Amino acid sequence: MDEFNYQVPAEVYASRGRGAAKRPMTFYRFANAAEAIRFVMEKLPVEMLHGTVMEIGETRFIGNDIKRLYGSDEYPLARALPA
Q: What's the predicted TM-score (pTM) here?
């Protein structure tokens, strides 16, 4: 993965899953991507990971991308979960 800037603002769209069925989606805005990633990984129920998207500008990161960023050696915050 290219170098990722954890300090840029990020938006998170969280849903209980993906698919054709309409599911409610919740929107969150964060001052930086590191906080957004921590929120997704540590605060949302694990079953929501696959229905969650983090958006930074025009770039979108889906559940597994977010998980990889959380586990990266470059992740700047202390982790509550094992990487």
A: 0.88
